[in-house]
């Protein structure tokens, strides 16, 4: 399979026309992003129908035997080291969720992205509404193939979905999940790491990049691991230690929640935090730290959508975003 050749991901910031320097024009009718647990059955059904459609539409990137869902997984995998563990993690994923929302609309969906509020479900995450086999994403996986130790999802609307990628290589397989079970006094799916108590020190950070690191390395990573990595860290679920984790459509409810938590942190001091952006860009070829980041830095999208600019994805009430929680 011939992979796409991507251009340089984080180049020098380009000059921005004066008229575009502030993308914070307040939209007049922001759309509400809902908690999946509080959405109606009709809203959930509409979302799921569109999400299934995304797993069936042919690749827009020209990937062989692949779908639009595979496009998202592949793009995330090949950009992984540029968009994780650096400042761009939050604005890049904010833009990425918007691009997925557009893909849902291309499949007839008229609603907005929704989120899994795993902070509320931390004590018993396996009972969360997102796992319902009709109005959710199906449940945990089971071992069904002795030649593939990944655990196949056998219920819900995605039980027949076969992702093409594992990391950035072609490895067709059944959608897989491998939940972490309760152990050592900790609840299942690593819930202790995203409990209200665990969120206190995260939300107490007062510098953007410190908050980003605490959220990314703590609750965000724990949900990925709890849903897809099992207890031995083999990463046998798509959401686990797999750079192509967007193969599991649940990924987008998880990252909409991450986006919501960033928004809530911004709301603690909107005038200071809405456009606060600091930290480092990816390391240079010689291994040294990348340069300090800028609001004018580019957000690559690997052909899924036009290249973005960080400043356009800092304020959810900007004209480009126009949503609320």
UniProtKB/TrEMBL annotation:
The leader peptide range reads: 1-15
Name the segments for region: Disordered. 274-293
| Key words of the record | Copper, Metal-binding, Monooxygenase, Oxidoreductase, Signal
Q: Does the keyword Signal feature in the UniProt annotation?
A: yes
Extract the Gene3D superfamilies matched here.
Di-copper center containing domain from catechol oxidase
Task: List, in alphabetical order, the Gene Ontology terms for molecular function in this entry.
Answer: metal ion binding; monooxygenase activity
Name all Tyrosinase copper-binding domain ranges: 84-101, 248-259
What is the recorded name of this protein?
A: Monooxygenase
Organism source for this protein? Schizothecium vesticola
Taxonomy of origin reads: Eukaryota, Fungi, Dikarya, Ascomycota, Pezizomycotina
């Amino acid at each position: 399979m011939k992979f796409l050749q991507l251009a340089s991901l984080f180049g020098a910031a380009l000059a921005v026309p004066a008229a575009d320097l502030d993308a914070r024009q307040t939209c007049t009718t922001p759309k509400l992003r809902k908690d999946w647990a509080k959405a109606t059955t009709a809203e959930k059904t509409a979302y799921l129908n569109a999400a299934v459609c995304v797993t069936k539409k042919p690749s827009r990137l020209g990937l062989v035997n692949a779908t639009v869902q595979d496009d998202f997984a592949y793009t995330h995998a090949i950009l992984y080291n540029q968009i994780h563990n650096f400042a761009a993690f939050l604005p890049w994923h904010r833009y990425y969720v918007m691009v997925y929302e557009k893909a849902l609309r291309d499949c007839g969906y008229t609603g907005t992205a929704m989120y899994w509020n795993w902070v509320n479900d931390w004590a018993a995450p396996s009972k969360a509404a997102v796992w319902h086999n009709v109005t959710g994403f199906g449940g945990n996986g089971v071992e069904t193939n002795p030649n593939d130790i990944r655990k196949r999802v056998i219920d819900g609307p995605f039980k027949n979905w076969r992702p093409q990628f594992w990391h950035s290589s072609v490895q067709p397989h059944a959608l897989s999940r491998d939940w972490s079970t309760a152990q050592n006094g900790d609840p299942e799916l690593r819930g202790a790491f995203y409990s209200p108590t665990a969120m206190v020190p995260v939300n107490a950070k007062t510098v953007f990049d410190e908050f980003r690191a605490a959220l990314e390395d703590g609750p965000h990573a724990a949900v990925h691991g709890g849903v897809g990595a099992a207890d031995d860290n083999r990463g046998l679920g798509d959401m686990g230690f797999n750079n192509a984790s967007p193969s599991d459509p649940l990924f987008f409810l998880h990252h909409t929640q991450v986006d919501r938590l960033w928004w809530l942190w911004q709301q603690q001091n909107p005038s200071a935090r809405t456009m606060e952006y600091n930290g480092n860009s990816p390391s240079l070829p010689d291994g040294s730290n990348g340069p300090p980041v800028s609001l004018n830095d580019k957000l690559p999208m690997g052909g899924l959508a036009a290249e973005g600019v960080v400043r356009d994805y800092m304020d959810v009430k900007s004209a480009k975003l126009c949503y609320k929680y």
